[in-house]
Amino acid sequence: MLAVALAVVAGATCLTACASDPAPTDVAVAWAPKGRAAVMVTWKDTNQPNRITIEGVLSESPSYVKYIPAGDPNQWAIPTSEFPSDGNYKVVVAIGTSQGGVSSKPTKSPVFDTDGPVRPSAATVAQQGRGVLIKWSVPVAPQDFTPNDPLDVTGKKTQRYVPMVGRPGQLLKAIGPATTSNHQVIKSIKPPYAFQLRTQNEWSAGTGGAVLGLTSSISGAVPPKAQYSVPIHARGRVILHETACDLESPCTSKRATPAGVPVVVLTQVTPGSRWTPAARGATTSGGYYDIPVLTGGSRPYKITVPVYSKGSTFTGTSSSKPEYTKSVVRVVSAGFAGGATAKPHGTAVTVSVGVAPALNTTVMLQAWNRQTRKWVNSKPLAMRKGVAALTFTAAQPGDFVYRIVVPGAMMFGRPMEGITTPQLPLHVR
Question: CA 138 to CA 360: how far, in whole Å?
């Protein structure tokens, strides 16, 4: 029984290792005609049936087997899709059939690599007319561990880039032919969109060089009133909407609230005039902004995100609704000369007021009437270049309270609200 078993094992071994048929010779690989869609394998033998496989060299071998009948030409085109990318391989040819198995020693082609394209690592975008100019850079290719192999493609431009654009709810699609250039002009495009490069060479393809075209939305508020030349604060939040895409499913939209988004406060100095910048700032964490705005006359304000590009992002503009801020005359100084609030009776007292802007108008000095509990007009005062003053004699002892009323005015074709000074107490002894 042991002798029979040994004989069976020896016979089985002879089917694959004893090589009853002579092995094929001169196994070679080259690119098939009409592009590089397949690897052409050729060999020599004596009109035998052949078995073709792919063997990995420090790479996993793919499960590819092809049988060539006897009498067929000694060549076969293996589609490049059968070779895993980024590996090292040999094509193996032996005598054999699917029913009878292998009957010769295998013969192997020279080793070759299936390195895929080097993907673009960085891209920048800038506005160009109504469209954008996109540029990208490509890292240095990694070391070739099979230099000068039979399938190496020579030349500096061995890979191509297919520009692709996707929008929310749509699939990424090519917008132009493959190119070997490192830049792409899209003549007319508006956010939202995602731009990607489908980078391809003879072995495989991948994506890289992404650019995002973002839309923005902004909320904003300004105070309804402001003292002349005193800064107000424009406050709000900016939300960016970006497009996320992959090759297999429709693109989606998601929100972002980054810091550093530029924000501009615009105003109309006079009614009907163009909107001009009044202040600039940027968002902080969470997309919030707080921008001081130096006020002038009464005028509307709106806050906008300008069109801008930064690195691989391009952001479209958005604006808040205009809001009107009414300017109020500002009291710069008011009181009695020397700062005194107590005077001997019979002495001269000077009361004055200074305002901004430097108005030429008439103001009213008022006194508080304790009996009627009302403010009573005492004397109109001429104001010149924003200053008005009155000197009078403190004839009667007692406690008095004064104030000065500054009327409204027109400035740059818009009304400015007047103001009343704080109460000015005077003790006459």
Answer: 68
